[in-house]
Specification:
Strand content: 25-35%
Helix content: 25-40%
CATH architecture of the largest domain: 3-Layer(aba) Sandwich
Number of helices: 10
Mean pLDDT: 95
Low-confidence stretches: none
Number of domains: 2
Radius of gyration: 21 Å
Shape: globular
CATH superfamily of the largest domain: Zn peptidases
Strand order of the largest sheet: 1-2-12-3-13-16-14-15
Order of helices and strands: HHEEEEEEEHEHEEEHEHEHEHEHEEH
Largest sheet: 8 strands, mixed
């Protein structure tokens, strides 16, 4: 079934459709190169797969980071009957694993399959209440044995959910990997707008599509070390908590469509936080604040600690159902995130002092 027409930037739509499980981000990386051509002064790749785009010649550097990898699986074993077993790339809710269409990304193209386990009719009452462990779920590609399967699939081939992008109501959309194709889009779309703007930022702007964030923010480490920024903004998704059963006393009150999320806490430079809030208020950009009491599970945790320490901020795009095959975001939040990044970049001056 083909995707319907989308009132969405083609860059974002193509990123959402791309397949880039952790460690195999090339498809998304090529899209970054395609859409930044003619906007960035230079676009580089590094040995861990990051895409790094440069704009301007300022003496100080602003680094923008959004990771382009997504959760997925890795083929780890094929049994005698041709069933394929896997390990997880990133964090999955095992309740979600079975009954899913998947694509195994092989060197000869995608191989389609479904995840399976025993049907509910074949379980006793106790088993029906249990969450399956990863090794109790398999991928069925329709073959009759190991030999036939091994002609199609190899150990170490990555796997993603086989889902399509759909519009819901209004500005709301569901896709497999808003985490973090949305953030990746924002850091490069902001650069594209800065490249077209009459006013130019005082800082050199370096946008990075980082890799391997889902298994420990690994791509951000060499990227931030190489870029050596004075100020850094990581852009990722943040948990929207406006759904049934979510205790806001524990998780805060973040609304889908409520605006870009500006994080506050020890992982965030307080002067960067105040500048982001000021930019949002001066430009009537809707925003929300999230309290982060420890190092976040985002690229911000790495950027802040590189070399002598970087003045770091963290922006979030509200997201429902994170790390599932059907995440839900509001396109207005993504647009407001782009606007805030652009405003922040233009607010910087060489005289800024972010020490505290």
């Amino acid at each position: 079934m083909a995707n319907q027409h989308f009132e969405m930037d083609e860059f974002l739509l193509e990123l959402l459709r791309s397949r880039s499980p952790t460690g195999t981000e090339q498809e998304a990386g090529r899209l970054v190169e395609k859409y930044m051509s003619g906007y960035a002064d230079t676009i580089l790749r590094d040995n861990i797969g990051n895409r790094i785009a440069y704009l301007g010649d300022g003496k100080k550097i602003l680094m923008l980071a959004g990771h382009m990898d997504e959760i997925g699986f890795l083929v780890s074993y094929i049994d005698d009957d041709g069933y394929i077993f896997f390990q997880q790339l990133g964090g999955h809710d095992n309740v979600m694993l079975s009954g899913r269409r998947v694509q195994i990304l092989t060197k000869n193209g995608p191989v389609y399959g479904v995840t399976g386990k025993r049907a509910v009719h074949l379980m006793d009452a106790k088993e029906r209440k249990e969450v399956p462990e990863t090794h109790q779920v398999w991928i069925d590609i329709g073959v009759k044995g190991r030999e036939e399967a091994e002609k199609l699939v190899k150990i170490g081939d990555p796997v993603v959910y086989d889902t399509i992008v759909h519009m819901l109501s209004g500005n709301r959309c569901t896709a497999r990997a808003f985490d973090d194709k949305a953030g990746c889009y924002c850091v490069f779309e902001a650069m594209r707008r800065l490249a077209r703007a009459e006013s130019k930022p005082a800082y050199k702007v370096v946008s990075v599509a980082t890799t391997q964030e889902e298994i420990g923010t690994r791509g951000a480490w060499p990227a931030a070390y190489a870029v050596n920024p004075h100020v850094g903004l990581a852009v990722d998704v943040d948990h929207a908590t406006d759904f049934p059963s979510c205790d806001k006393r524990k998780f805060g009150g973040i609304k889908l469509g409520g605006g870009v999320v500006i994080s506050r806490g020890p992982n965030i430079n307080p002067k960067v936080f105040e500048r982001l809030v000021g930019c949002a208020e001066d430009n009537n950009i809707p925003y929300q604040v999230s309290a982060e009491p420890r190092p976040t599970g985002t690229d911000a945790r790495i950027i802040q600690m590189v070399r002598g320490g970087v003045a770091t901020g963290l922006l979030g795009i509200p997201l429902r159902y994170m790390h599932t095959p059907a995440e839900v975001a509001d396109l207005s939040d993504i647009e407001n995130c782009v606007k805030l990044i652009e405003s922040f970049a233009l607010s910087l001056s060489e005289n800024d002092d972010f020490t505290y």
